[in-house]
Amino acid sequence: MVTFRPWETEFSVEKIDILMQGADLRVLEVVLAPGECVPWHMHPETDDLFIGVTGVVDVHVKMPLEVTRLMPAERVLVPARKAHLAHNPTDATIRFLNVQGVGAYDYVPIGDQETPEFTPRPL
C-alpha cells in the first residue's frame, strides 16, 4: 500500500498523524498552529469528512465559495472533486480529524501551496 503524504512535499503545517489507513480509507489527525492552513486542493476520487476536535477550524470550498466553521464535535463533508482548504482562524493551536475515502487516496494541489489565496473568515 502506498502512503501518500502531501504535507511532506506540497505544504507544511504543525503536525499531521495518520491514525488509520486501509486500502480505501484513511483517518488523519491534523494540528494547525495559529493562522495555518492546509492549502487549496481537491481529491478526484475521495470525499473528505472534517470533524472538529479542539478549537475552531474553517473549511473553505470553491464553486460556490463557502466557509463552514466547525467547533469541537461538529463536522462537514466535502465531496470528491470539490476544491477546498482548512484554516485555523484563531490565535491558538487547533486539532481536527480528517476522514478520507472511500476510494484510492489522492491529492491534487490547486494554486500556490506555500501562500494560498483566500479570505479568512473573521472570528
Explain what you see:
The chain is mainly beta and 123 residues long. It has a single domain, classed as Jelly Rolls (Sandwich). 3% of the residues lie in helices and 46% in strands. The protein is built from 1 helix and 10 strands, in the order αββββββββββ. The protein has one helix at residues 6-9; strands spanning 15-21, 25-32, 37-42, 47-54, 57-61, 66-70, 75-78, 84-87, 94-101, 108-109. The chain has a 5-stranded antiparallel sheet, with no helix packed on it. It is globular. The relative contact order is 0.30. The mean pLDDT is 93.
Number of DSSP-assigned strands: 10
Query: So what's the CATH class?
Result: Mainly Beta
**What's the helix-strand series?**
HEEEEEEEEEE
The whole-number mean of residue pLDDT values reads 93
Give the uncertain stretches in residue-range form.
none
User: Main β-sheet, in a few words?
Assistant: 5 strands, antiparallel
TL;DR?
This protein has about 120 residues and is mainly beta.
Features:
Jelly Rolls, 1 helix, mainly beta, single chain, 46% strand
Detail the topology: elements first, then pairings.
Blueprint: H1 6-9, E1 15-21, E2 25-32, E3 37-42, E4 47-54, E5 57-61, E6 66-70, E7 75-78, E8 84-87, E9 94-101, E10 108-109
Antiparallel strand pairs: 1-2, 2-9, 3-8, 3-10, 4-7, 4-9, 5-6, 5-8
